[in-house]
Amino acid sequence: MPLVTLVIQVRDKNNPDSIELDAHNYKEGDVIEVLAPDHKFTEAEKRNPDWRFVRANVPQGALDALTEPEDRTDNPRWQRRRRALDLKSLGLSQATRDYLADDTRAVESIRDDNIVTSNFTRPSRKNETEQEFTARKITRGGR
Amino acid sequence: MPTVVESTISQSGTPTYSTPTLWEAAKPANLVSEDKVWRGVIQSASDNYSTGASTTLEILGSTTDATRYTELTVADGASHLDNANPVYRFDSSKGAAFQTTSAAALVVAENYARVSRIQIKSTTASQQINTDASATGVKLDSILAEGDNSNGNFAGTTPTIVDCVFINRTGGQASLATVTGSSQKSFINCLFAVPSDLTANTRAIFLNSSGNAHFTNCAFMNCSSTAVHFGTGTIAFVTCAANNASPPTGVTNISIANAAFVEPTNTNTDFRITETSDFIDAGTTSATHAADDPFGTARPDGAAYDIGPHEYTASAGGGGSAGINLLLLGVG
Hints:
heterodimer; A: alpha+beta; 4-stranded mixed sheet; two-stranded antiparallel sheet; 24% helix; globular; B: mainly beta; 9-stranded parallel sheet; 27 strands
């Protein structure tokens, strides 16, 4: 079970122009990239308020699944990640929740081997209607 | 004029971003409303992004237009094109590289995105490069895609692929590239090749029933005797070359020997051409594409464009820039 650094998106990146483009953007809980535990992040990466770095032991077989996109077959609204981490999981420690909520990014990274256990399959947006997309645009936060 | 937001990308030094994926993930969701071009420049010849079974870089998600788009390239001196022999053989020690084991290394699914000067290898994937069906106006330039299976899958609306090289390293495979979708895909001065000492591929191009491809000044080497392409879609060739006895209209039969590559075999493959090549001045001069070859030689050097990605220039000697390097070293 290798120790890795997960780069996690902590808020939705929204594109109001179309359902398709919006689906292709990173959303809350997406693992953007899996990197080495000693990966040297740049200053721009350390400051990005939308990202967090969580070091975790992840089973080898689960690593690829973390960054797997949704199946594109007959689905122009495929999502960039098929699965997302549940960042609001009650199973996360208070320290991890505090870290995830801190947009100042005072702490560069945190170690939490339990974060991947909150892994779940994100619902597909394949059949989302324009009305539902518009409603989500109105209600959701993030940039 | 849009603002060009240029970021450096590298695994060393003090770049803006440490990986292409993080550079891409930091991109605004709407480049048009922000009036920006999002440009990333990989900095070092030793930047080797090897991502195992996962795609190395996927470009998608932003609203763009023809003047406000995403662009990834490699800095001068950091590309495989800037290094001495052997070129046109993937070598991550000789230039910035993307590598995967079982996924497309590069997926371009965003309108008007541009990628250039990178070398790409996937050992088992069937699609090292994938221009997605959802994207319009994608431009690929001076990319080396090398693999053990098919090298590219080209879909989408009017992508343009210029000066790219697609090499298969096992031979005997079905094809080097697949073209799908009814919108025309334009290939200009590209090379599709299997090294001469390997078993020929069944074909160079697989064109599905709705595919539409247009090849200008392209070369197809060591694919089977009759099938430069295969499929029932729309295909056209203009001043192309293949070592096939009965090539289709627009393709001239030029043997590998008469193409006079620097080294067409698998060990030290170098598909640049030498001074006796029948490719020289055998192409069509383009007013809009490929004004320079990947090594910086202005086209045409002579009466017309050469066929393939390498424009032979007598001043550089056989092998183009390698000849210059040897002179600088006082060798030969």
